[in-house]
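ARCHIVE CARD
CATEGORY: sequence design from structure
SOURCE FIELD: tokenized fold
FIELD CONTENT:
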């Protein structure tokens, strides 16, 4: 059976429709309350989910405000830039011959309804498909790469364009790692139930204005290729996150550029996974040391 796993108030839950089931309870403690302990056991979870859910009464209705970051404590976050050709074009950058990879640091993570800090006048949005590594992957072949992935979730690679482009070479990792710059959620969905997320609609709206609308099929480097490529450089560990790139429609690409303002609502989603809704909030003073 496919599964949909969420992190509700620090507890692992299975989500069915609009209801959630505490995983520790329905599994008779075969699984703990910790979502980070469930991720490496995604094969066991898939095999047992139907049995655990049979005859169970739900623990309540799911509210996005109660959901924490779908993966709260990855050992690392790897993000891929310029993985959709139209986004590379709007960024006025060359389409890469190999994946352009940078780190996001785990302090940036927040939930699917968490607030986004507007630390400057140049904070931008980037909706992305995020892969959740399920088992250790080292130098794996592309043909088997997705068997190392527990599932997928929705992510926002929020970016401060000023810090991202500061200096030469630019500071991609720092510009994308401010606190709150990594909303992920609302759930983790196992790959088979969403056809490996290779042809899913991906979108983003700012205050109801549809600014990004594409398909994951438009990626230059596929999810399987990215997992294989990265695993030949760094060992991927259970719970690691791979942000796979954003389609065209970011604020930096508009003329004139359009960036987040306090009070803006950033809604985004991926077909078969779900949606997030994050509000931008004022948070000044972040540039005290930058001048």
């Amino acid at each position: 059976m496919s599964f949909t796993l969420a992190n509700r108030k620090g507890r692992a839950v299975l989500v069915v429709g609009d209801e959630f089931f505490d995983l520790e309870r329905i599994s008779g403690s075969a699984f703990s309350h910790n979502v980070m302990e469930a991720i490496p056991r995604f094969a066991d979870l898939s095999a047992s989910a139907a049995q655990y859910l049979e005859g169970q009464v739900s623990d309540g209705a799911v509210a996005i405000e109660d959901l924490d970051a779908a993966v709260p404590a990855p050992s690392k976050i790897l993000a891929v830039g310029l993985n959709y050709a139209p986004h590379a074009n709007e960024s006025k950058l060359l389409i890469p011959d190999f994946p352009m990879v940078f780190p996001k640091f785990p302090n940036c993570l927040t939930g699917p309804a968490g607030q986004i800090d507007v630390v400057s006048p140049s904070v931008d949005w980037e909706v992305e498909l995020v892969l959740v590594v399920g088992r250790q992957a080292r130098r794996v072949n592309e043909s088997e790469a997705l068997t190392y992935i527990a599932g997928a979730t929705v992510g926002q690679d929020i970016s401060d364009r000023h810090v991202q482009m500061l200096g030469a070479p630019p500071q991609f990792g720092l510009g994308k790692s401010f606190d709150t710059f990594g909303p992920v959620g609302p759930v983790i969905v196992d790959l088979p139930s969403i056809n490996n997320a290779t042809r899913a609609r991906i979108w983003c709206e700012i205050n109801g204005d549809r600014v990004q609308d594409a398909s994951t099929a438009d990626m230059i480097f596929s999810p399987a290729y990215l997992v294989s490529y990265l695993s030949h450089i760094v060992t991927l560990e259970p719970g690691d996150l791979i942000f796979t790139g954003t389609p065209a429609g970011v604020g930096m690409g508009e003329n004139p550029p359009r960036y987040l303002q306090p009070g803006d609502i950033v809604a985004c989603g991926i077909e078969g996974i779900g949606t997030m809704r994050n509000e931008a909030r004022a948070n000044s003073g972040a540039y005290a040391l930058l001048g």
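CARD ANNOTATION: The first strand starts at residue 4 and ends at 8. The chain has seven helices and 18 strands.
SHELF: design records, drawer C
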